[in-house]
Amino acid sequence: MADQTYYIDEDVGEDTTTQTGAEDLPYKTLGFAVLSHGEGAKFLTRKSVTGEVPEGLDEKARLEWKPAAKAALKKAINYAKAQQKKAVKEKELLALRTKEEADRKKVLDEAKKIVVEEDMSLPKAEKIKLDETDPAKVKLGNGADVKGTRVRVFGRVHRERKQKELVFITLRDGYGFMQVIFSGILAKSYDILTLTRETSIEVLGELREVPPGAKAPNNRELHADYFRIHDIWKAAGGEEAITNRVSKDTEHATLLDLRHLTLRGEHASKVIIVRDAVEYAFNQVYRELRLRKVSPPALVQTQVEGGATLFKFHYYNEEAFLTQSSQLYLETCLPSMGDVYCIEKSFRAEKSLTRRHLAEYTHIEAELDFITFDDLLDHLELVMCRVLEVTMADPVIKQYIIDLNPEFQMPERPFKRMKYSEAIDWLVEHNIPNEDGEPHNFGDDIAEAAERRMTDIINRPIFLTHFPVEIKAFYMQKDKEDLRVTESVDCLMPGVGEIVGGSMRMDNNEELLAAFARENIDPSAYYWYTDQRKYGSSPHGGYGLGLERFLAWLCKQHTVRDCCLYPRYFGRCKP
Ligand code: 4AD
Predict the structure, then answer these.
(1) Ligand 1 atom 20: the closest Cα is on which residue?
(2) I need a surface site. Which of 64, 72, 453, 520 has the fewest CB within 10 A?
(3) Which atom of ligand 1 is nearest to the CA of 491?
(4) Residue 304 Cα distances to 5, 48, 96, 411, 548, angstroms
(5) Distance from the alpha carbon of residue 206 to the mean position of ligand 1, in angstroms
(6) According to the model, what pLDDT value does residue 201 have?
(7) Whole-angstrom Cα distance, residue 474 to residue 480?
């Protein structure tokens, strides 16, 4: 009302509808008062009635109501106008949404009436996996004179795209992807209209070539004539939709908490599928080379790679550890089985959060009898290259590797062989300091960062050999020509660094016992290991390859954490 007066107290007033704007119930802001009563009314304001007196106001002035200043009123009017505009827009939007909801409800009510039934006069559908391309099993139709095979497939909805009359989905079953098209009453049915990603579905239909210019997996699409979604097969939608839980922008830690969902993504699943192929290839190549597979225990009472990284636990009434390496057990198999290997878990209680350390990793270890150090290096190079050949021979796996690591090239053979002492010289020449910031010296442990820089610059696989006795494990054979160093090897790969550690083993019992003494290890727990030297010793050696590190290199993954199913490392033991 034009002649009405409203009061604004900036201290104790309140911008709520319980206030009237009367002197005893003032508003807090002029903007709110104008918005509530229009710009024509009279507005009296005061700064403060409580608390400290604002600078420049005396005691009396602060209790005095004054007409709102012109500039303040102008600002308040603009504010009120903007608020009114916003309210109109919100109302319009709400009306639109209500209408849309009503329309959608109408469509869904209609959709519920549609009964999808299988046409039993159609040919029997052949159950196939989504990657089945064998022409003897599936023929592609052309939508005209050539009929395609009628198939039955199962999978989860990887992606969906709805058009007016057609619904396209990309189906995923772990073997491959298939484009499926729903048309006619299927596209209008309730289950298809409300379809959410990750829902499980059974689809029957005819396989056809994609139209020219269109793209789809295996250049084909399934024209559905029938589908089935059981109620419990439906995936959560809305807020809980999988796309709201994991996406490209989700933080790495959250992705790891939700690894069970992350694994459904194309990137994570490719790595894990390549991993399966690589592990299989190792088995195949070892068989070709006549190594036998064994399965040593994980619960042990001996250390292999130093006490600092042992996970200890109570084993009934005794102390025991999770194994760091199966090497010592593999050595015990040589006399009865010949050359042996294993693919088992190793455990390291490393309190490190680097991108190449796990607490639990898959260790591919082999042990060879009656060999020289050069034989060991040749064997290792052969195994690694042959594994890559076998892996890349599968066109699907090859494509996955190229997708993940477009610049991948087979390593050049022979691998560069470099002695530890040469590496020290190289690091000094290239001004790459040790961990103390000093030039490297013979005897220094080459730290992860320096090792990786050297490997990245050389940019090819390196066999780094002959490490000093002091920085290597107790069991390593000394080099007869230079007793300061061991017949040891680390295989270094660009981008990752060390992926293999191996050596010839000390085969002289006296020497071994001296090594135990040097390392302060009680040899009595190792009676079964020293017995190997007592009953027919032999020149032998072996190595351990970290599968996750090999994959990080092959699939160009930043961290080994993304190269295993559910990574375990310092601070993470879930899911
Ligand atoms: O160099 P390491 O410690 O050697 C051994 O355990 C030997 N006993 C193996 C043998 O000769 N049979 O480990 C071998 C390889 C490393 O090169 C690395 O690839 C991997 O195992 N590895 C790890 N991978 C992930 N996380 C860790 N914490 C790892 N520690 C070692």
Answers:
(1) 546
(2) 520
(3) 17
(4) 88, 77, 70, 31, 20
(5) 51
(6) 98
(7) 16
Residues in the chain, total:
575
Q: Counting atoms of ligand 1 from 1, which one is nearest the CA of 357?
A: 26
What CA–CA distance (Å, rounded) separates 27 from 19? 7
Cβ distance 363 to 546 under 8 Å? yes
Q: What is the pTM of this model?
A: 0.84
What are 82-86's contacts with CB under 8 Å, separation 24+? 83/31, 83/35, 84/35
Q: Would you state the structure tokens that stand for residue 416, as one six-digit string?
A: 């560069």
User: Side chain identity at 550, as an amino acid letter?
Assistant: F
Contacts of 366 (CB under 8 A, 6+ apart): 286, 291, 330, 339, 340, 341, 379, 383, 542, 543
Ligand 1 contact via 544 beta carbon (within 6 Å): yes
Question: What is the three-class DSSP state of 105?
Answer: helix
CA distance 91 to 379: 76
Query: According to the model, what pLDDT value does residue 460 have?
Result: 93
Task: List the chain residues with pLDDT less than 70.
Answer: 1-2, 48-54, 56-57, 61
Q: Is the CB of 358 under 6 A from ligand 1?
A: yes
Q: Give the pLDDT of residue 57.
A: 65
Pick the atom of ligand 1 nearest to 499's CA. 19
CA of 365 to the centre of ligand 1 (A): 9
CA distance 468 to 446: 11
